[in-house]
Amino acid sequence: MAEKFLSAAPTFLVRDVERTVEWYEEMLGFEVVTLMRGHGPGQDDAEDGEHEHTGPVAFAIIQRDDVALMLALASEPVRPNREVAGASDALDLYVWMESDEALGAFHADCEAKGLTIVRPLEHTFYDMVEFAVADCDGRILTFGA
To answer: pLDDT tens string for the chain (145 positions)?
Structure first.
């Protein structure tokens, strides 16, 4: 028998890690697991690998239940999957919910918070109930049961 995979965590490249962390906390209920700062002015690991970095947050791990995301600072503009040529229906993350009831309650919560719903709550031809929101960076997050 093959070794068992335990979990996975995608990495989203973002322009502002702190802003993205705040959005996921406030809008989707994620919690911070790890925050790491980058270099501050004049800091260089080649000269002193022991110092505490004082720059902006460069990396974070956030989690809600069994779903973890890694957020990494990008120096260039980033784009959601759907903005890549030929990928107009692509999503950036799919989250399976425990039941249709839980999905419906979460959808109502997302609407109450004013999230941008990009696909309404609907029953799909592949026998799932789903809806999708756009995050603060325009990524499409789909939730289904």
So the answer is: 789 888 889 999 999 999 999 999 999 999 999 999 886 555 555 555 555 677 789 999 999 999 999 999 998 888 777 777 666 677 899 999 999 999 999 999 999 999 999 999 999 999 999 999 999 999 999 999 9
Q: Same domain for 101 and 120?
A: yes
The answer to whether 140 touches 80, Cβ cutoff 8 Å, is yes
Q: Which domain holds residue 24?
A: 9-44+54-78
* Assessment of whether the complete model's pTM goes beyond 0.70: yes
Minimal CA–CA distance to 130: which of 107, 108, 114? 107
- Distances 101 to 13, 78, 111, 113, 129 between C-alpha atoms, Å: 32, 34, 15, 19, 10
Total domains in the fold of the chain: 2
The DSSP output letter for 25 is H
Q: Helix (H, G, I), strand (E, B), or coil: what is residue 58?
A: strand
DSSP category for residue 14: E
Domain of residue 29, CATH code: 3.30.1900.10
